[in-house]
Amino acid sequence: MIGKPISSRTALLCSVLSVAVLVAAYSLLADAQHRKNPDDRTIPTWHQLWGGLVFLCEQPTQQAGDDNADLLAAALQDAGVEAPAARRPQGWLEGRILWEASKASLGRLCGGLSLGLAGGILLGLLMGCFHKVDAAAAPVLYFASRIIATAAMPIFFKLAGIELQMYLAMIAFGAMPIVTLTVSQYVRDFPEELRFKAYTLGASDSEVITTAIFPSVLPRIFDLAIMTIGPALVYLIAAEQIVAGEGFGYRIRVLTKATRFEVVYPLIAILTVYAGIMTWGLRRLQRKLCPWYGATKR
Questions:
Q1: pTM value?
Q2: For residues 231-256, b (16+ Cβ closer than 10 Å) or e, as one string?
Q3: Looking at 10-24, 114-128, 160-174, which range is the least confident one?
């Protein structure tokens, strides 16, 4: 029967089986590929993937005499030599590929998403509450929401350079129009009788927005923020693969050119884990701030 609930034990069993089937299928594919070519790296074995993960977590040495050498390039060229202690990266985490890539990419992602969501939520509330604001902003935002941010990257390069500001601007531009239009629709869906009741009780415009409308749409804003993570990652990785000197996109590009797919796959998996952690964090915050929303969904 459609929509019939299942027990938690059955759901867990189905989840475990799906993962087991995926792992088994990949193992068979990798084994078949390595029977044809034992040196193949395009479909690495589990042992090779573990080696790639270790490579990401290690602290490579620098090339002799070059304090500014790209640690990853030195490692890929097998040219790294033991550097004097004074020239080693300072700190336990410094210089490790995974740490450096995570620090760069997550900073850009969180900064751009924060700007896009904050601007979109504020403008969306104003558009949903005031028809004059909606009439003035809607045409521009509808047009902007149809622009593909990755196609407009040359414009961002020209206007904002290739530093942090460019990543923040591109992610915010990609997220803000859709967030604004969606939030404004959420506000328009707010029941009129509740709005009139708030005015009847003597609330001002700002009080209606802050005490009635915003708390009502807040749970759906969390859902919207979660859905925005995926597109924001697309914009970020695309830009990093073209112009960045650090970050997941840059590392994936360099490692792909070096046919080090046993390192590329863990990078992609780790990036997916980061997105999952962000989703989990937003869900937890949603349940804490809007407990009634989770109760109605269950």
A1: 0.82
A2: bbbebbbebbbebbebbbbbbbbbbe
A3: 160-174
